[in-house]
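Posting here for the record, re: coenzyme A.
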Amino acid sequence: MTGTHPAPAAVVTGLGRCLPETVVTNDDLSRHLDTDHAWILSRTGIERRRRVAPGTGTGDLAVAAGAAALKSAGREDCDLVLLATTTPDLRCPATAPTVASRLGLGAAAFDLSAVCSGFVYGLTAAAAMITAGTCERALVIGADVYSSIVDPADRGTAVVFGDGAGAVVLERGRRDAPGALLHAELGSDGTGADLITIPADGTHLTMRGREVYTRAVTTMTESARSVARGAGWSTDDIDAFVGHQANLRILASVAKRLGLPPERVVSNIAEVGNTAAASIPLALADAAAAGRIRAGDRVLLTAFGGGLTWGSTALVWPDTEAVCDVRR
Ligand code: COA
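Prediction output follows.
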């Protein structure tokens, strides 16, 4: 029989973040790089970003953000830890099992590498595992320490990226519950693999910024539009558009194409820069903490990044308080 029990869904019940304490302003960067505050602000919308102290890695930020998300959900355990990152602590093994152990969790744990789309990929994968019955409750973390892979002498990337982590708790629940993930779509185009890359013989990230920019605007717009439609929304129904925080001008262009007024676009890029896999959960946590998104809001998440990869998720925002944490 169908109809008596609504299909199970993955529901967001907790949200946390972690930012390193050290703030790097545009003026700080201009002291050793041929750039200036006015250029960075006008071309990207970034005013400052955070950087980890020596000895702090992705796992440290992920543990803090994960603990904050569990606290926000009022939970102490989960049976899946999924860490989206391109800057794992080690090449092998994955960082997620160590994060799980440090949180005292005997959970399945794995890393997921989809660059700046990693969090939306992770959310979608964890939701599928929950609805399939593989796990009951998942901690999905996006954490990256791009200061470890960016060339400090490359003004095209050094000004853009920052370090950070954000996390959500996803639980098995009902599709009509606030926080339920309603629809998601993912995509990739490997013909653009060389646009954002760390070559096998290199240590630093390279990015063909202008080309990525153009691809990001068109792809994010299409992905957002398609997922809104899949959720049964018109783009006008979107209360908060939370796009990957790569560049404020990209977010403005996408919003304009979607017909969304600026007040429906969530952005914290001025404060944190592009934090890669952490970008969307950090933007969510900041927006929730500031009351910028509220329970009942229709929220659309759209990511785009290296691979090329992209993805979007639609959900109605739950009554969840973000727990914030800062570490050295
Ligand atoms: N300060 C001053 N000048 C800079 C600079 C900086 N930090 N970085 C680049 N420039 C210069 C370039 O050398 C170039 O000079 P030229 O015209 O004399 O050759 C000029 O500014 C324009 O460079 P360009 O790379 O075309 O700038 P841009 O407007 O595209 O901005 C990015 C560069 C990286 C900010 C932008 O391309 C971007 O945000 N790209 C998308 C990134 C993205 O979406 N990533 C998603 C996955 S992470």
